[in-house]
Amino acid sequence: MLLKLQHTVSKGYSQVKLPNNFAFSPPSRMSQSKGTVVLAYSGGLDTSCILVWLIEKGYEIIAFLANIGQEEDFTEAKKKALTLGAKKVFIEDLRKEFVEEFIWPSVQANAIYEDRYMLGTAIARPCIARRQVQIAIQEGAEFVSHGATGKGNDQIRFELTCYAFQPSIQIIAPWRMPEFYNRFIGRTDLMQYAKEHDIPIPVTPKNPWSMDANLMHISYESGILENPKNHGPPDLFQMTTDPSKSPNQSDVLEIEFKKGVPIKVTNLNDKTTISSSLELFEYLNKIAEKHGVGRIDIVENRFIGMKSRGIYETPGGTILHHAHMDIETFTMDREVRKIKQGLSITFSTQIYNGFWFSPEGEFTRHCIMKSQENVEGKVQLSVFKGHVYILGRESPKSLYNEELVSMNKQGDYDPSDASGFIKINSLRLKEYNRQSKMNPK
Amino acid sequence: MLLKLQHTVSKGYSQVKLPNNFAFSPPSRMSQSKGTVVLAYSGGLDTSCILVWLIEKGYEIIAFLANIGQEEDFTEAKKKALTLGAKKVFIEDLRKEFVEEFIWPSVQANAIYEDRYMLGTAIARPCIARRQVQIAIQEGAEFVSHGATGKGNDQIRFELTCYAFQPSIQIIAPWRMPEFYNRFIGRTDLMQYAKEHDIPIPVTPKNPWSMDANLMHISYESGILENPKNHGPPDLFQMTTDPSKSPNQSDVLEIEFKKGVPIKVTNLNDKTTISSSLELFEYLNKIAEKHGVGRIDIVENRFIGMKSRGIYETPGGTILHHAHMDIETFTMDREVRKIKQGLSITFSTQIYNGFWFSPEGEFTRHCIMKSQENVEGKVQLSVFKGHVYILGRESPKSLYNEELVSMNKQGDYDPSDASGFIKINSLRLKEYNRQSKMNPK
Amino acid sequence: MLLKLQHTVSKGYSQVKLPNNFAFSPPSRMSQSKGTVVLAYSGGLDTSCILVWLIEKGYEIIAFLANIGQEEDFTEAKKKALTLGAKKVFIEDLRKEFVEEFIWPSVQANAIYEDRYMLGTAIARPCIARRQVQIAIQEGAEFVSHGATGKGNDQIRFELTCYAFQPSIQIIAPWRMPEFYNRFIGRTDLMQYAKEHDIPIPVTPKNPWSMDANLMHISYESGILENPKNHGPPDLFQMTTDPSKSPNQSDVLEIEFKKGVPIKVTNLNDKTTISSSLELFEYLNKIAEKHGVGRIDIVENRFIGMKSRGIYETPGGTILHHAHMDIETFTMDREVRKIKQGLSITFSTQIYNGFWFSPEGEFTRHCIMKSQENVEGKVQLSVFKGHVYILGRESPKSLYNEELVSMNKQGDYDPSDASGFIKINSLRLKEYNRQSKMNPK
Amino acid sequence: MLLKLQHTVSKGYSQVKLPNNFAFSPPSRMSQSKGTVVLAYSGGLDTSCILVWLIEKGYEIIAFLANIGQEEDFTEAKKKALTLGAKKVFIEDLRKEFVEEFIWPSVQANAIYEDRYMLGTAIARPCIARRQVQIAIQEGAEFVSHGATGKGNDQIRFELTCYAFQPSIQIIAPWRMPEFYNRFIGRTDLMQYAKEHDIPIPVTPKNPWSMDANLMHISYESGILENPKNHGPPDLFQMTTDPSKSPNQSDVLEIEFKKGVPIKVTNLNDKTTISSSLELFEYLNKIAEKHGVGRIDIVENRFIGMKSRGIYETPGGTILHHAHMDIETFTMDREVRKIKQGLSITFSTQIYNGFWFSPEGEFTRHCIMKSQENVEGKVQLSVFKGHVYILGRESPKSLYNEELVSMNKQGDYDPSDASGFIKINSLRLKEYNRQSKMNPK
What is the value of ipTM here, to two decimals? Predict the structure, then answer.
């Protein structure tokens, strides 16, 4: 049942390669059906209500739930979706492709939105939506649907990905439909609807904020956090230990990179060594969680033009960010780095705005990838009480030349060259001085 | 004696306004003098030897020692310079102008070189050199001199500033003169020379690295740090407590900004309040020192094209960087921020390379200053174990609209607008998909 | 009747200063009126039909027709609007403010969209819309309306300007309303409607393309031009002579700039001299028209994501572009120029996309204006057969130093400095060579 | 004799592949020889004097003269060099590689320095110098030499290329050596020296300006042109007809591109068709020459920081620039184009400053090349009286969608989407307005 598509992204994201035994099946539907909807299903109250509501509206539902590392009882969720009326349920483990195709390129790029946000939610959306629209293609569904709100970024990231792969897809976004949002004004309305439609109601009371979790990060926003002055409550964080309660002993890691991607982590304290992508990232998460690394509280600018406040924890990603930045500067030429820095900012905005799968996203990733060819070597760092400290680095491909830079050796360097260099660089300044004196303001 | 120039930087840095009672005195010199040199004097072994060596070579020396917050016995240094033969000594407290004219603009800019270095040395050089060349103009000296090495950035920052203010100035850089550097190959040669010329020899043994300190930061480099793999030794840091030994209780501060500049700091723990510039910055240094904030270990790209390894501590500056970034994003329009982010990177490179006083430096600062008009409000943050945590913020000029962004209120926002927004944004992606399908790769 | 608002743009575009004798009059309307609409009226078939249609729908209409230099019988247009039922008509001569507040800043910026388009339509829209929304405010109208299509840029430029000045304004864009565009599918439907409602029908047959004209340029698009392979027909151009029929004798002009703005034009052939802004620009238009200067045929990328084909003529603007570029490079420091070049590209996109009045537009213009402080001097150029040839330039503020650059004089320049400069610049290249040889690909 | 190296640039410029029959021969020299110099020889007075002067100084000379399309009697030049004492002479036809490896990438990049200069000299230097340093490696010469002046850009472009390929190379730049430039202060000194050393003296009097010619362009500078106000004399131009004397009948061309490179030119007037690279470029030169296309007169900023005045003619390159720009915008996604526009500016500065062969040059070229994958199709244009007029274009890979953009068809486009798009885009503007009103300036 769980047909796995082979998608060969590198050959252009518009090409979805279908498995050999794939036969396009026209959407079988009852005469009265409005068509089939692949719904991004989370198992929670919102998307459960949406599932039932869509059936009520005459659609057939395929529920799709991606495992991108969030805590979830997937078996239970599948059962629930089927119980609620889904004609099919796809539960897919996308964790490995999330790490390799989305987190790694972001690490290579040093992707950071507005100097602070590590884009943990933003890179998960195209990963999920790509698979969802592939299922729609494969299952002959004309519709996809999701439970994202009408004010956020995720609706955009989700839908642009769908359009990029399947321009003819039709999207049902209930939270943007007056018929839906006027009916479900608050959580009470959803609870009421759930009760009326035998939708299981969450037993634990909802936190006064919302949360989005995946392998890379958890975001917290809305509710009491909407007042940007309010401090995040101490019990907010799920993914990292409070630094004030974290161990008094650091972990010292050595991370090895090749082409800008981490290929091996060694814990120098206990000699743990990990080198497969998903496990490696999970291990960094574990270490960072232990030491309370990766918490930020920011106000950011959404694509739709609002400012919003978010609290994020990105444990493993934060360690990697520091380590990659270090090995990159160590091995990359200064001027290439400058250009790449500009591309990274551009890329980060693309990701944030939902253009991972776009001509410009594809182009920028290609250029960044090219810049990483020599980004290779080992970084040693210490993780302690919420912070990452770089300790040292080495590389077979470094452009660092210890003899050249040494204060004690002259090396192949003639200090008098610097005199000429400085004098030539001063020419413009002297001319400006001359001109300013002739034209005092 | 200590004639204080009024320099009116805002009117163009090429104009040095002399005090009313100023009379230009032609350099009085003995017939055999080669002229007068204003020497940037530190009181240490190197510049003491240079002082004596220059006299030996036939120059008259005015020693200049700027107080920019480094630990130093200035009275002692003055006495020493006079003893060694300087005909005049200027000791000047530049700390307030260093904070207001150099640190504040850097904070406004979020100035960071290569994503990590906060430019603590780089912004001190133009502050010192401007005063030095002003003294040269005032005293009728044709020469300035300094003890910077021939491989570093400081020689450039120093000299470009001098040329910018006084194009005709002549610069003596002994460490670039074969006559000098071939004579003084190692520290032993300097010690020997000192012994022969009654130059007091430092009693404490030299660390196996070099150090540069000012109000904003200390840098450590060369010596054993030249091997980029070597970890910085635990006793390296002078300006911050080891985070593992710092208090188990955070300090919570509220920093208030106006036009992007901090105007008030309140410690919410003990209600300490400070609002004058120099004291405010010193207080932040104190808090950051206490909690071990601001240490980094990086490899960077020098202007002359070498990679070098530096360890830096920037305690107060690190707190301000986080706080300013937060209030800026809170109050600045998204698109203005994007442009300003680009200008900041440009400005940081200008500073690093020594072009603080240059047409482009002046222009960039002006633009950045303009961007700060509404950067106003209060940021609350916690300082703990080497890290700064933003907790919340408020501003009378924020562009944040709590009602607009709220998940629970619709506000003046129609979610269906987002549908059109997304569809229009998908047009390019659909066309690209169409074109790609017609031209499979 | 023709109440002229004093708008003080420099103080922030959100402030509309009303004349002293201004009294806010609440919109008088009949009980059944849906409210008052200020309609951007052109006098043509489309907006005449819209005017009548809006009345039919229950609105009261204030027609607004801006004179921005297009050929038009404004008296006739006013009469027509009143006849069709407008309760008021504003005909306003915005030519001078169009030149001074919109064309001049574009000249200062060297504003060019996608390397070719001089933005003649794009800068006219905010000029017109600002006045229109001011009238709406003044007249107490809740609505504004326009005849721009739903696929173009102008709807965006128009409406963003309105929202920027009056966020609560409501916009009626008939060509985006199914009720309207489904009724008026082709020109025939409009003609039919006009006939039925006594709307005068144009006597001259419509060209198989559309046109937009103002003081700065005429654009031609759609119709037969939609096929990007089709050549523009020879009789297309209204604003410039066919270069093959233009005079065989050039005009030689001297244009004088101050702060990047042309302040005087002298025709060196006949000594004509003009120095007031509007007349100066009209004169350049005249000269350029005579010599067929300023025609381009391009495909461009619209803000909504489509590519479209446009043919443009920008006669006087093209001359100014060449002249300004020349005097700017002559007087502006190289590094300032680089930064400004980036700002110009950013600004051009802002203008194109309709963000003239926006935080970022305001900021960018401020920065560009700052860069123009020393852009002063005279450029001599020849206009001939469709082309502009720069001949020479002079300036009291140039950074050009004839002695310094001379091949025959050494000036204050030591050629051996260049050796050091080159060697230092080669350091990175040598390290890269070393690293490449150690790691052959 | 004319040993042709196979250089495989694509594999990294640091690798010079030597021919199979190559045997490294240690520089044979007489005991008193200081070593062998590969001299970039032009056949003119300057480099002839340098050749003899270097021999006088004790060097052995290998003269190297590259044919990059300049007018020259190469056989005569070879004879002359041998007569003057060169021990070997290399005359090499680099025209094809100049077109394919240097001009084509510049066309792909739309490379333009400071918005105007097409870099005709700048791209020739690395082409020549690469071959020169390859000869030095092959012939075991420790030195290279050239006749470029000490104030210009060419010395830098030349030498950086040499260092990039052979870091240990030693460069003799006589015009930067006091011994040389103090001896040869003016042309008279060179003439005198030539007379004394039997160096043939040019019979034609030297123009009062200097000139540099190659296949792509001729530059004119210095002498009477150093006064930036002086008009270029009518008899200056060698490569293009005076537009006032050019034909009254245009040539209409169709240029076909593939991956951003012209692969075929058809003259639609006479059906001439050309498709091999060198011939194609020469043909465009011929057509442009005939119609006087490609003349500019500019002031530019040299890398060393001076402003200089240059007059350039770039006939064929100008046609290609217009044509490529057109097909590129037609086929390239808007956002990719924006990024590529930034890269082009960066690349142009790299080229101008002599960093064609550098890590950043290699990287930027790679990215630009990637952007050209779909830049394919045909452009029709008219060449007439100094100007190039684009007439139309077509492409199998265009992102232009005639149906989508049509004013008369709705296509797959819902105009009401634009309403949402505009409203969402206005959100920021409304917030800014709100904030401005609350905080009037």
Answer: 0.92
